[in-house]
Sequence to fold (433 residues):
Amino acid sequence: MGLDFTVVPDYFGALLMGAGWTVAITICAGLLSFFGGIVFAVIALYGHWALRLPVRAFAFLFMGTPLLLQLFLIYFGLIEVGIDLPAFAAGVIGLGLHFAVYNSELIQASIPAVDKGQYEGARTLGLSRGQTLRRIVIPQAVRAVIPPMGNNMIALLKDSALVSVIGVMELNLSAQQAISRTYRPFEFYLAAAFCYYIINLALEAGLRHLERRIAASR
Amino acid sequence: MDTELILRVSPFFIEAAWMTIKLSILTAILGLTCGALGAAARLSRLAVLRWIAAIYVSVFRGTPALIQIFILYFGGPQIGIQLDSFSAGTIALGVNIGAYMTETIRGAILSVDKGQTEAARTLGMSRWETMRKVVLPQAARMMIRPLGVNISAMIKGTALIAPISVVELTYTAQRFIGSTYKPFEMFLLSGILYMIIIYVVGQGISLLDRRARIT
Fold:
């Protein structure tokens, strides 16, 4: 059986739809990982021990195990405790939490690097501890780690292909459906890979633009 | 927590962990080979080799590893490459991690002070001699830690071979979640085994790194 790429255009719409869902998952999970990362970092550094310990244990577990395993845990685990989330939501939560842990590590390392004078200055001006963190320290700490967080975002885009295993209808699964009708895995997986590559290029360009703007505003 | 069930299924997980270890070792060897060749090509004087290596890195880092595994395993037979799932998974993942390692190794080589190369060349060493006797010994020390990071990511990455039905840790966890409806227990069991493997490898790499620093 040779290669025949003429079947690919017939499924152009389906693949495009899948690509759209991949972008949607990446954005939703990316936002969750960004804000989740900040919350985890603040809890890990400043939280009450009753909050800090579970967050640290969770981070330890999620850094040491594969994302695919975590997706199974979240999807089937939530069903087990009676929460039947749609696959899309479970996928976003799984991807988002996985990368939130990695973003949190970056922010945790960056918070102490914010000049102590900033903290003291804010407190002297009468800001509360929480206000100082929220308005002065965290924005600077987060800005400093935008480039490595961007790398996490790129990894998230590629890892979004994994949520197909719990049935989220994204690019990878769209390709699989086309394959189950045409029996042409090579052509469709290659087409999917091409779409991922294009989205990846766009994301990289966007992140570079963001980094330049941040560098310029300093 | 159902401890009786955990005890009953753990032999399957131990066996699966052994498969994950085998996959990791073979993938690491292939990845390091691809990484070394890739870095050599990226730093080559021949523009063609530089181009090929740059495309290799860009394509393999720019697309999901899972898709690469699927292309080789499911699409391979169409272009005359018939591989069992173990070989297809190992080769695809090894070539994938090789693209990341190419950049790691290249970065370490480029981080060696330029003055070293200039001095060696001035002393009359050939380009190859300079690389072998001056640059690489220094670069090798610097690449141990980042390559270790690549390898521990790769160990977790072997889970991507589960969807093509290689009976490793994640596949086993998935199968037992399906048959026992105990996702937390199965996650913990396989998760702990992954963490043990990664911990042991990490310790080995730290040891290697410390030794390289002393000499």
About this structure: Chain B has one domain: 3-214. Helices of chain B lie at 3-42, 47-62, 65-75, 85-110, 114-122, 127-157, 169-180, 183-214.
